[in-house]
Amino acid sequence: MDSRNSKEVTRVKVGKYDIPTFRLHPNLVDATRVLYENFKSEEAPDLLTVAKLLGHKTDKSGGFLTKIADLRSYGLLTSRGVTVTDLGKKLTYGTSNEEKNEAFKEALLKIPLWKEFHGKFGKTLPTSNFWVELTKITGLEAPDAQKAEENVRNAYLADFQYVKEEKKPKDEGTKMGDQDKIDTSTAKPSTLEELRFGDNVRIWLPKENIKEAWAKAKKMIDIYLGIEASKEEG
Q1: What is the DSSP letter of 169?
Q2: What is the distance between the alpha carbons of residues 11 and 5, in angstroms, rounded to a whole number?
Q3: pLDDT tens by residue, 14-62
Q4: CA distances from 109 to 34, 64, 104, 119 (A)
Q5: Are 20 and 78 in contact (CB under 8 A)?
């Protein structure tokens, strides 16, 4: 990983990828909020005004130019001029925490290397031999990947630590449909057949179409045993 200057804009190179110098939160979120509050949906009149609003003395400094470049990389400013994008508006003034979270994640995935990592690893990265993955994904040679892995990991984790991933129910996909359920709510004892499996396990099945009922019951048992097994493994 190295830093290269182009017209005083510092770009952090990781093999064939660039990654932002500034982190999305809090640096660039705060910068986007300031620009949106001052200019709304209008383009800023000039770069010097923007620079001073963001705490820079001049619009010629490398720090300021890099910050603007990074804001564009995350999709928070238009590619020309200085106008806050719809994504930047949602990130700073979303109508709900869910909308802000989605905007935050969308901004991070604007960074091509972050998108590669997220698609393969999610929010976290391997703690062992991460440099090996860097060589595969970025094209870095092994010695350079080993030198870069800590800085790259820290930057990625710093960006994604504020993203809240949607949690899916652990047993999703194992629920039975209505067609698999056995309705015994209206059954009378005389219409049920009791199956015993040892002293503690009893299953009541309707005598009518008992083979079909048993097939459904067995399916329910198999699903239950699968769920219990996954809990024990977890």
Answers
A1: P
A2: 6
A3: 999 999 999 999 999 999 999 999 999 999 999 999 999 999 999 999 9
A4: 23, 23, 9, 10
A5: no
Chain segment 72-126, per-residue pLDDT in tens? 999 999 999 999 999 999 999 999 999 999 999 999 999 999 999 999 999 999 9
Q: Is the pTM of this model over 0.90?
A: no
Quote the percentage of the chain above a pLDDT of 70: 72
Nearest residue to 73 (alpha-carbon basis) of 148, 11, 6, 163: 11
Tell me, what's the pLDDT at 6? 47
Using CB atoms within 10 Å of the CB of residue 95, give its burial: 0 to 12 exposed, 13 to 18 middle, 19+ buried: exposed
The answer to whether the beta carbons of residues 117 and 125 sit under 8 Å apart is: yes
Q: How much is the CA Rg of the chain, to the nearest whole Å? A: 28
Give the single-character DSSP code of 216: H
* Whole-angstrom distance, CA of residue 107 vs CA of residue 154: 18
Q: Among all chains, which residue has been given the structure tokens 């802000």?
A: 100
Helices (H) and strands (E) in the chain, counts: 9, 5
Neighbouring-strand partners of residue 172: none
The predicted pLDDT at position 184 comes to: 45
Helices 112-121, 130-138: inter-axial angle, 10-degree rounding = 130
Helix, strand or coil, per DSSP, at residue 195: strand
Q: Which helix (H) or strand (E) holds 201?
A: strand 201-206
Any idea how long the chain is? 234
Whole-number Cα distances in Å, 28 to 22, 54, 96: 7, 10, 20
Token pair 């620079």 in the structure block, residue: 51
